[in-house]
Amino acid sequence: MPRAIEILFPRRDLLFRAALLEDLAPKTCQAVESRLPFSAPVYHTRRSGKEIQVVFPRPPEHPGPENQTVYASPGDIFYVWFPPDECVDLAHLGVFYGSHSRPSVPFGPRPQNLFAQVLEEQREQFAALCEVIWREGTDNIIVQPATGT
Amino acid sequence: MGRQFELFFPNRDVLATAELLEDLAPRTCQLFWEQLPVTEETYHTRRSGCELFVITPPWPALPGQENGSMYCEAGDIFFFYFAPGYPDAPLHLVTRGLRDYVHLGFFYGRNSQPTGPYGPVAGNRFAIFRDNLEGFAAVAQKTRQEGYETLIVRRKGQRETSPKDRPSRGETPRATASQPRSMCRGTYSRWGLSVGPRARRWPCCGLRRGVVWAARDDRSAG
Questions:
Q1: Chain B partners of A87 at a C-beta cutoff of 8 Å?
Q2: In chain A, pLDDT over 70 holds for what percent of residues?
C-alpha cells in the first residue's frame, strides 16, 4: 500500500485522499510529509487552469527539481516553489481538478514537481468542490497523513 | 471619443468607467450598447491571468469576429461568444441547462492572455477602461478570496437599472461557515435556466450532502 496524504475541508466536511508517487518523487514526498499536518487557505489559480493552490509551510530544505512536467492531468498534485530571486519566496501545493491545464506563472508555463495524485474515484467529487471554491472564494483545509486503510 | 459606460459593484460601492472603441469594433460596440444595462455575477478567470468576467445569455445578434486579438493589456475589455459544449463553461450553470453564452472579459492587469482550454483564444477587443481601473482591480482581487461579486454594466448617466436587472437583494450576503452564499439567485431564472429539481442533480453524485449543499438546495427551491 503506497503512502498517502489526506486533504480535509472541515467547513464542508469533505475528505479526499491522494496517493504519493514515492518512486518518482521521493525527495518531494518526504519534504511534504515532514510538514504534515498543516492547515492552510486554498485559492483558485488565475493562470494555470483548473487548479487550486494550497499555501504550503515551506520545508527547511527545498527538494529541488524532481519528476517535473508542465502537463497536468486531473488529480495531479504539484509541489511549487520559486527561487527567491525569481519570485516571492513562497511554496504551494497545486492540485489540478480538470484537464487542459498546466502550471503557469506570470511569464508563462513552468514545470513543477509532480508528487501525488488524488484517488481516481474521488476526482469527480473533488472537481465539483473546486468549482464551488472558484465561485465562492477561499476555504481553509487541513492536509494530514492518511490514517487507517 | 466613443460612448462611455460604467462598471459598478453595488456591494462595494466601486465605480469604474470605460469607453467603447467604436472605430475598431463598431458592430460589437453597437450590439453591446443595446444590451445595457446588464447585471450579472462575476467570475475570475482560471486561465487568462488578471481577468474578471461576466457571462450573459447570447445576444439576439452576434457581431462575428471584429478587431480580434489573442493579446491584451491592462484595461482591455473583450467580447467572446462560446458555443454549446464549451469545456470551460461554469459547471453549476451547465447543470442548469446552460448552452451557448456571451463572455465579457475585463482585463485588469498585465501579464495576461485570453486563454481557453485549447490554448489562447481570440476575442473582440471592443472597449477600454478610462477611469478607476485600480478600484476595479482591487475588487477583482478580492473576489479571489471572498467569492463572486455583483457587477452592473450600464450606460454612463444611466442611474436607474431596470427592475429586472436590479440585484435581487439589497446586499449580497457574505459567505460564512454557517451560511454559505447561494449560487442561484435571480440571475439564472432570468436566463430561463432551471433552478428547481434539476439543480439537485448535481454532477458530483457521490458528494456527501454537508451543510453547504443542503442549504443551497433549500434556497434554490424557494
A1: none
A2: 94
State the pTM of this model. 0.79
What are the φ/ψ torsions at residue A81 (nearest 5 degrees)?
A: -150, 145
**pLDDT tens across A27-69, in order?**
999 999 999 999 999 999 999 999 999 988 878 788 989 999 9
Whether cis (ω within 30° of 0) applies to the bond prior to A65 is: no
Chain-centroid distance, C-alpha B185 = 14
Does the interface ipTM go beyond 0.85? no
Show the CA angle centred on residue B194, arms to residues B189 and B196, nearest 5°: 105
Query: For chain A, how many residues are written?
Result: 149
Q: What amino acid is encoded at B1 in this protein?
A: M
What are the phi and psi torsion angles at A124 (to 5°)? Answer: -65, -45
Q: How many other β-carbons are positioned within 10 Å of the β-carbon of residue B43?
A: 19
CA separation for the pair A131, B17 (Å, rounded): 30
Q: How far apart are CA B39 and CA B147, in angstroms?
A: 16
Q: Decide if A127 and B91 are in contact by the 8 Å CB cutoff.
A: yes
Q: DSSP 3-state assignment of B217?
A: helix
Q: Using one digit for the tens of pLDDT, what is the confidence trace for B154-181?
A: 998 776 555 444 444 444 444 444 444 4
Say whether residue A108 is in contact with chain B using an 8 A CB cutoff.
no
Question: CB contacts < 8 Å between A and B, how many?
Answer: 95
